[in-house]
Specification:
Largest sheet of chain A: 4 strands, antiparallel
Oligomer: homodimer
Mean pLDDT of chain A: 97
Strand content of chain A: 5-15%
CATH superfamily of one domain in chain A: NADH Oxidase
Number of helices of chain A: 11
CATH architecture of one domain in chain A: 3-Layer(aba) Sandwich
CATH class of one domain in chain A: Alpha Beta
Structural class of chain A: alpha+beta
């Protein structure tokens, strides 16, 4: 039981090596159009997309995204932003006082922006393009705001690098579906259940290599002590919350 | 220039009337599998999905989602949650101290959950199912947490109602793509530009009917004074932030 759309979703791979082949303008326009058909709260479309193609600007973005080389290699970077700025101007221009300078509105606009990004990702892949998400967007939102000249009430939430793949990686592992789905109410995990959910991931060659490379006891320690550490998470949480205040989505910390 | 995947995306309509036809188990499993192929930060998969099919539970959810009838009518409701709970247990069980009790981790997990939800939406539509997102999820996250028995470090972010459509609505309007895309840097909007972006939306029959019905000057006032008011947004912002504290993603307000 399948269809082409489902195949596009099931065949998703994150691409980390790109050819320098440009993406034709019609394809860029087409994936954007498909992106903007995504659902949006009250059909307000409180998001914006900033496209970076210029080599100088890509280099600056590359710095902000922890020098991940895909940003330099691929022809296009799309930054998806929660954006109430446009909506607010419209309201004011129509004699309506907007009330969107708060956390709920930030979440609403963020959800809108992420739904669009995933439609764009799927549309791009349907054309044979490769994509990678940059989670570093929320880490350095403040510097990205400066670089892209984002006004108040606009915050970058996620970023897609898009281009023609120069690699053909295998599908990456996923936890068993049954470990992530709950019926009716959340069924808490027993220790045995946790062991089962992570068993395949922990037994993989990739994990084995990572443990060797990092000289740690296991994969969980690699996540907690190398990749996504408490110290980094706390530092970037504070930074992001300050950005919410600065961009007008929170009164104070 | 098109393909079937792109057609699925372009033909998206929000469905608000559903038949009571059940969704075959194989299709539910298939759209979940497609959902979980979505990109995820560091392949951590820090999300969970809670499926509600039981009539009693749907009724309780319906109350929490402002009595939107789709929740009662459609056979399935899927609540997508940011979830660091499972990951935290795994870390602790592996002698790794997790550092995910902060705002950045909440955002990371929320983004993961929303990417999955959009893949599920697209997969469902590829099978001829209809979907509607419930933005009310972030409004009543605390009550939903109680109903679905979500533990600490789990917060519902968005909800999809899924079922077979009992209506065939036209495509809804979208703002012109050019008004939402910026090249290289954000180009601020002139008053004329705002007028142009909203012109088609404001001129529509739907808008005309809404203004008549609401007895207000224009569409912007309907958004700001009826649908998404400052008072509601501030009330639900405070409520949601308290939920972040309660669920262990923020130290205090």
């Amino acid at each position: 039981m399948s269809n082409q759309t489902l195949e596009t979703l099931l065949q998703h791979r994150t691409i980390r090596k790109y050819s320098d082949k440009e993406i034709p303008k019609e394809i860029v326009d087409s994936i954007i159009e498909a992106g903007f058909r995504a659902s949006t709260t009250g059909n307000m479309q409180v998001y914006s997309v900033v496209i970076t193609q210029d080599a100088e600007n890509k280099k600056k973005l590359w710095e902000l995204h922890f020098k991940q080389n895909m940003v330099l290699e691929a022809p296009m970077v799309m930054t998806f932003c929660a954006d109430f700025h446009r909506f607010n101007i419209w309201c004011k221009q129509r004699n309506a006082e907007p009330g969107y300078d708060n956390f709920l509105s930030f979440m609403t606009a963020s959800i809108d922006a992420i739904l669009v990004s995933q439609n764009v990702a799927v549309a791009a892949e349907s054309y044979g393009l490769g994509i990678v998400y940059l989670g570093t967007t929320t880490y350095n939102a403040d510097e990205i705001i400066e670089l892209l000249k984002l006004p108040e009430h606009v915050i970058p939430i996620t970023t897609l690098v898009i281009g023609y793949p120069a690699e053909s990686p295998p599908l990456t592992d996923r936890l068993p579906d049954s470990g992530l789905v709950h019926y009716e109410t959340y069924e808490d995990y027993t220790p045995q259940c946790i062991d089962e959910i992570y068993a395949e991931k922990e037994a993989s060659q990739l994990t084995h290599d990572l443990i060797e490379e990092n000289q740690l006891e296991n994969l969980a320690q690699i996540f907690a002590y190398k990749r996504y550490t408490k110290k980094d998470n706390e530092y970037f949480s504070e930074k992001l919350l300050k950005t919410l205040v600065k961009q007008g989505f929170m009164k104070s910390l």
